[in-house]
């Protein structure tokens, strides 16, 4: 049996070739780089200043409790927005055309307690290659509590997953930094697949990340404001971060419109071109909402991101026009929800349907 998923290279080749040519032509004709520019740099400064200001206010300030609670909620959003903007583009090497700056931005994930090393394997390589393929895409594996597709085993409680999903999402960030990373580290596996052994510098980076994170966001607050306030504040921040990150991802890949392709049993081959596979398994939302785009790093343009992950999100609105035109020309389906509400309820409807059926 083949060990890796493969995609058909003889289907829709004209579509994928023209898509690539037209996107490349856009950058050449407009003399633009595919990386970020001042808009992304400005956003990064705003977000980092917000993080620092809120952190020091919570640690050294003497504000009323209700104000501190609001600040913890805002801090959760800021954490998520830094991940969506700085870390995500940096991790995909498209924040800048300078390698060292991409690395720095990518390591903003480490500041938030995650492992950039494992994220790049899990997200860049596995998720972006095998999107929505059960058993291969680790990002749709929320078993046993959430059933995302018919290939996953169904339990009786999945009947209610559309009700408790948001509660579960609130612990995903905490689960990520406190459990999932360590599971990958000690097993050496992601989605039950062995990953290359870490170099010494990666081992040091992993443990340094966890130590710095615990010191900054748990130990110092415990010392400065007391254990009750520190832990309540931390769980509020972590809960908000988890909900925001989870929801944005789920609305891109776990909604009614998208597919969960099943590879051929013997060959593990997907009967489709890789580019079309990305269009079948991904959906956009609220692409006209500039405020939402600013906050979530253009990830409401998930289709464009999956087709061209090495292009910075600041270019997605223009790339979006090209992709739609080429899809219409070749009669390729393109999934997009007009607003956040439509995508959110489609996600809940999908969970309800998948949870109710064997």
Question: Your description of this structure?
Answer:
The chain is mostly helical and 358 residues long. Helix content is 62%, strand content 3%. The protein is built from 15 helices and six strands. Strands 1-4 form a two-stranded parallel sheet. It has a two-stranded antiparallel ribbon with strand order 2-3. α3 (65-91) packs antiparallel against α4, α7 (161-169) packs across α10 (227-253) and α7 (161-169) packs across α15 (340-356).
Strand content: under 5%
Q: Which stretches are low in confidence, meaning pLDDT under 50 for 5 or more residues running? A: none
The main pleated sheet reads as: 2 strands, parallel
* Sequence of strands across the biggest β-sheet: 1-4
Overall pLDDT metric: 94
Radius of gyration: 21 Å
Following the backbone from N to C, one meets helices and strands in this order, namely EHHHHHHHHEEHHEHEHHHEH
C-alpha termini separation = 27 Å
């Amino acid at each position: 049996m083949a060990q890796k998923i493969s995609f058909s290279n003889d289907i829709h080749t004209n579509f994928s070739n023209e898509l690539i040519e037209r996107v490349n032509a856009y950058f050449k004709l407009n003399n633009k780089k595919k990386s970020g520019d001042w808009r992304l740099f400005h956003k990064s400064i705003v977000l980092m200043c917000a993080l620092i200001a809120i952190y020091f206010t919570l640690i050294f300030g003497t504000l009323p409790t209700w104000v501190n609670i609001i600040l913890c909620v805002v801090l959760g959003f800021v954490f998520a927005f830094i991940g969506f903007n700085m870390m995500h583009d940096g991790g995909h090497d498209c924040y800048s055309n300078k390698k060292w700056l991409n690395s720095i931005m990518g390591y903003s994930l480490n500041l938030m307690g995650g492992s950039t090393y494992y994220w790049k394997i899990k997200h860049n390589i596995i998720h972006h290659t095998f999107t929505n393929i059960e058993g291969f895409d680790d990002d749709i594996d929320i078993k046993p509590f959430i059933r995302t597709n018919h290939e996953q085993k169904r339990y009786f409680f999945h009947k209610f997953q559309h009700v408790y999903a948001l509660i579960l999402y609130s612990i995903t960030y905490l689960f990520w930094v406190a459990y999932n990373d360590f599971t990958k580290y000690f097993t050496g596996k992601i989605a039950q697949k062995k990953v290359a052994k870490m170099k010494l510098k990666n081992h040091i980076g992993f443990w340094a990340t966890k130590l710095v994170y615990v010191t900054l966001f748990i130990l110092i607050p415990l010392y400065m404001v007391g254990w009750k306030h520190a832990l309540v504040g931390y769980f509020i921040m972590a809960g908000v971060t988890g909900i925001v990150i989870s929801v944005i991802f789920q609305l891109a890949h776990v909604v009614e419109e998208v597919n969960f392709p099943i590879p051929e049993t013997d060959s593990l081959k997907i009967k489709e071109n890789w580019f079309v596979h990305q269009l079948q398994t991904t959906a956009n939302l609220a692409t006209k909402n500039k405020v939402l785009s600013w906050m979530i790093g253009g990830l409401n343009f998930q289709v464009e991101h999956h087709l061209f992950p090495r292009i910075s999100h600041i270019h997605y609105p223009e790339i979006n026009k090209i992709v739609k035109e080429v899809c219409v020309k070749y009669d390729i389906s393109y999934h997009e929800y007009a607003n956040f509400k439509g995508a959110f309820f489609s996600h809940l409807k999908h969970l309800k349907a998948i949870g109710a059926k064997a």
